[in-house]
Prior knowledge:
Layout: H1 11-21, H2 24-27, E1 33-34, E2 38-39, H3 40-58, H4 62-71, H5 89-104, H6 109-116, H7 130-170
Antiparallel strand pairs: 1-2
Amino acid sequence: MHNPNAWRQDQDYLNIVDDLLQLDEVQQLAQYTQHHFSNRLRHSISVSYQSYTIAKTIGADAEATARAGLLHDMFYYDWRVTKFEEGSHAYVHPRIALQNARKITHISDKEADIIVKHMFGATIALPKYRESWIVSIVDDFAAVNEYLIPKAYLTYFKWHTKWLKKVSEVFA
């Protein structure tokens, strides 16, 4: 398991994304729940940093990966409530994120592909770049970790509490 705050000590990573992290549009992502137990900003930083470290390790474009990873979920609505006629949330939100990202910074073709294709598997648009594959896979793992691990802990805690109560009743 990785340290969720390691990105704060990685000066190379911060040099790449700090201008984005300073923007109100990016900071606003903290106001939206992501995967029930996280917020969208924390999730985006996690995907960005983990993807960046992989890209850097394999000699891929770490800068594009970090920046696009940070912006991949840049949308400002609750997807469980807001619905679109254009298609599912998996199809629509990457396109909205790309539009929003382009409002705040220059987005290269590679970064655009990373953002739009990060839902590969839930959508059929095949990623063009290895950096797009990295963010897509890391995003999937992050979603699972952000939902299932806390859910499993809460389930265990509830079970453990009930078990302790029953045991204490037997020996009372």
